Amino acid sequence: MRPCFLSIRGVGVFLSIAVLLAVTSAGWAQEGQAGTKKELEDAWKTHKARAKMLLAGDDQPRKGDEAVAKAAAEWFLFRITHKSAYDQAEVHKTFAAEVATAWEKKLGGQANDNRKYINSYFGPALVASMKEVMTRNPPAKEASTAIHAAMMLPTMARFKADPVGAYLADLIDNKDGTTHDIVRLYALKGMREYLPIFSFYDDYEIDGKLSNLNAVLAKKPHDIKNIDALVKFIERPVSVAGMTKEEIDAVRYLRREAIITLAQVGAPAVSAIKKLKKVEGPVAPTLLKVLVKGKGGLQPPASLSEKIEAAHGLCYMKHANMPEYNPDVAAYLIGQTVVEFVSEYNQDLVNFRVAAVNKTLPALPFKVDANRLLVGLKEFAKNANTDAAAKLRDTAQPILLRMTNYDTINTLPDLQRQVQQSLPKSKAPFKTLPTPAIPLDGQ
Predict the structure, then answer these.
(1) Contacts of 323 (CB under 8 A, 6+ apart)
(2) What residues have CB less than 8 Å from 194, skipping those under 6 apart?
(3) pLDDT higher for 27 or 147?
(4) In 3-state terms, what secondary structure has residue 12?
């Protein structure tokens, strides 16, 4: 299936970004300015030195610094609404530079601590300012400004402030039904800044064996909320009755962004502790469902591109210290995905190889994805440490190598047999903890 980048009914503009960004203010409704130019500049001039000191961690916040955080947040975000007064590209650039300022000393090994200011002052101020920008500039009326504002969400996320993460999770979850998908797209991209996670296992949470237990315990509920928002979005069934092919492709495009984000979590779950008899923040079950064919999979069914992203997430999961996770289910479904990938390649090869008379572009980036799968399967064999994972790697490797040269593949039946032989006895993603079984082969 060739990717399509057309708009979806009721969703709007996220697949028409290039067109919308090229549109000037002429013809649009009056820009929804937040604050006046003079107010922004006066407040920033007053609080700039203190704001930069706090962001750098050179001092700790004190009473009255709420005004500093507010002035800084409004300076960085409100200017995006003043299209006639400020260059929007420059606004993005200066905001991104503040992320570097906030982290440069930590990256250099300095002891300066700015987390209290960022979490308790600056983060909430950023969220409040962005909410006002979004309220004043709804995508349906102020598309250009709304898109520029949405594009700032990943930059906001790089401060790694807990209130910003919670805000992104709310945008993704969209409980009130008001989040436009152009905003949700960049919220999904921003959520990647909070990954990977620390996963809890065995008795670490209970007995306190971690030297930084308090810090990871404080982060745990945020991780669970973030993952739950992603899982809910990916697994939500979407009725495609009456939709065009392009509209369905657009649904998958946005869902793929969520899968890419979830795939970067790096663990099967936030918590899988046998003593507690529960799994919190499950990641693996959703990625496995992406790979399921037929009943029990996603609705609409996942595209091959979505499956490849989910397979990568499963390949790179670290779970040596999470013995409750069952990688055999992943080995089987990843194998099925590789079979589907090779089969699609074989069907499309005649259209794009050099000797083709009416040569076309490949339906998928086969060379790139084949290389990614080569590396991913090696990691999976190491992480899973099972016979099924090792056999999948060894059987798929020569096939994927041939694909990187656009060679003809005649050994697909060998891979199909190996995958079918790896059908696991248990369909449960976790061995004894209560989680729904994953349907295999539509069962």
Answers:
(1) 201, 202, 431
(2) 157, 160, 165, 222, 223, 226
(3) 147
(4) coil
